[in-house]
Amino acid sequence: xxxxxxxxxxxxxxxxxxxxxxxxxxxxxGEFFSFLGPSGCGKTTLLRAVSGFLEPSQGKVLIDGQxxxxxxxxxxxxxLIFQNxxxxxxxSVADNIAFSLEVRGHDKVQRRKRADELLDLVALNGQxxxxxxxxxxxxxxxxxxxxxxxxxPKVLLLDEPLSALDLKLRQKMRTELRAIQQRVGxxxxxxxxxxxxxxTMSDRVGVMNDGELEQVGSCYDVYEAPCTPFxxxxxxxxxxxxxxxxxxxxxxxxxxxxxxxxxxQAGLGLDKKNYKFKAGDEVIMFVRPEAxxxxxxxxxxxxxxxAEVKTIEFEGNLKNIFLRSAEDVDIRFSVPSSSDTSGxxxxxxVSLSFSQDNxxxxxxxxLALD
Amino acid sequence: MNSFYKKNGPVIATFFLxxxxxxxxxxxxxxxxYMLDLSFRPNLPPLLRGGPDDVYTLTHYKHFLYGxxxxxxxxxxxxxxxxxxxxxxAVLVTIINLCFCYPIAFYIAKLATPNTARLLVLALVIPFxxxxxxxxxxxxxxxxxxxxxxxxxxxxxLISTAVNFIALDIALYTGLTYAYILxxxxxxxxxxxxxxxxxxxxxxxxxxxxxxxxxxxxxxHAKAGIASGSTMVFMLTAGAxxxxxxxxxxxxxxxxxLIYQWFNMNDNWSRGSAYSIILLVVSVTFVLLMMRLFKxxxxxxxx
Lengths: 370, 303
Ligand SMILES: Nc1ncnc2c1ncn2[C@@H]1O[C@H](COP(=O)(O)OP(=O)(O)O)[C@@H](O)[C@H]1O
Ligand SMILES: [Mg+2]
Description:
The complex is a heterodimer.
Chain A: E1 5-14, E2 17-27, E3 32-36, H1 43-51, E4 58-63, E5 66-67, E6 78-81, H2 93-97, H3 99-103, H4 108-121, H5 137-149, E7 155-159, H6 167-184, E8 187-192, H7 195-201, E9 204-209, E10 212-218, H8 219-224, H9 229-234, E11 239-249, E12 252-257, E13 260-266, E14 282-287, E15 292-294, E16 302-315, E17 318-325, E18 330-336, E19 349-355, E20 359-363
Parallel strand pairs in A: 3-8, 3-9, 6-7, 7-8, 13-20
Antiparallel strand pairs in A: 1-2, 1-4, 4-5, 9-10, 11-12, 11-14, 12-13, 14-20, 15-19, 16-17, 16-19, 17-18
Chain B: H1 2-8, H2 10-39, H3 59-66, H4 77-111, H5 114-125, H6 132-143, H7 148-156, H8 170-179, H9 181-193, H10 197-205, H11 210-238, H12 242-247, H13 255-265, H14 269-293, H15 298-301
Helix pairs in contact in B: 1-2, 2-14, 3-14, 4-8, 4-9, 4-11, 6-8, 9-11, 10-11, 11-14, 13-14
């Protein structure tokens, strides 16, 4: 059993400070939805409003169409996994998992049976009698999931549950969380500041900035068709060329940036329509690092420019090359490690190009700082 | 030891060591040993001390159990009665104290905003700047026949004649409970403060009622603090003197009052010592038994 969750104009204030501003989103039953945003942008606050620990200052939370105002966390069909898991350290693993059954007056035998089933589900068979502190980080994670699932929630809320794990385990748990979600078939609302996590697990992602939901879309949309400069730079890496619109032709926009002119595509707004620009508008043109290549295959649809190599960073599968263009724009692009980069020593000038189809033009706005 | 010296420098380290040893040896160990020794000796006038009659004897302990040799009763019902009364009342006072302090400590530790918490702590601490005797008299005034409480109750028409709170020992229980409230609240507060608030929320999210959350999560977490506070309150209540002297009804005796009488009024230091030792040993044994029962170790209690 899964449920649909809808936030209608949800704003949450602490005193005069708004931690969430007018958030609207409808999360489908059985969906894996992630809120993605930098830390402090209001993700936890939003999740607490869904779970019932906070009432929105304005707006409504609906679960399966039912207004949740005034309904406490213990009465909602949701279950929350806390950022620090909040397992009960003085209880055994099985008692932790079966706590919600104890609350409902199930007897010992039933509780144990259910705990064992859930331990199976999260691949922890036979660990029920251990104390919480005897488990590893990843195992604790699974116990927290099992405990939250024991109440048979229609919606599972997860507050950065993987942030305390090391990289390898985190990657493994991503796959596993996704698998668990598909097995139990309930709605998962996941929050994270890690775009990799959000993109690998989710059906859809909502990108948050400063209490506002900037864009909601499939992982592909959010990456390939960002609506705002923040989304463009927060989700994945991006090169930003500031400039002025010179000419508009349908969705093609010619942008004057520094000494050169590049042609790109007008980005999609929240309404899924291309932004309408006119000559003279201040814009930013975004080009993904992987879209930039060394000049050579020059077609007509290419923008080209030259830049000076600053540093080359080796990152295993990739080499990241940092450059500065003639117009003093910092550029980064990446090539597979196996590529020949012998001509690219620091302080050398190289010619680069990118396709017009891979350049997204957006109205100016704040970038994500990293 | 070396690292202790390194950390604090020779002067301060030596001062600490000397002070601690002085405190332990001269102020605690030696007087107690002296009392222990005294309790096994007959009560002799100064001239006969160290003489042939000054031999070890159990006479004072026997007196506590069987009374004076001239008494007709099989046991010393009066003294044993007072003793049991004292212990039982001290247990009750400790329990009342715990029930009273737990919500306060929980509120300060987990629910109050930092400012409210500070104010509450101040409000709790400031009355204790007044000494115990004065506080007891103040409570006596509150509970007296024509005291504040009776006047209010009469005024409200809730009672038609004044209640004798002193004779009912209500004043005594109130005074004793209040006297050591801080020694309960602070260990409780310290223990509760370390409880992760997310655990309370997690329990709530899993459907737990407030009572169950306390029973299954908060109290187990605070067990050591509860034990520590209860131990101190029990020990001090059983050994209290000023409050019972001021607040007990004329026919209620606190065991310490008996001890006091043996030492001062009857000038029988040996018997006074024996009675003190009995109180000490029984109290400590009782506390250890309770700790055993609730599976708390000494290490946890003094942490
Ligand atoms: N109880 C609170 N009182 C006041 N401010 C709060 C409270 N909880 C969160 N905030 C503020 O709200 C903002 C968002 O916090 P949070 O939702 O925890 O962010 P995130 O989970 O995205 O890191 C932060 O600036 C934080 O300081
Ligand atoms: Mg958070």
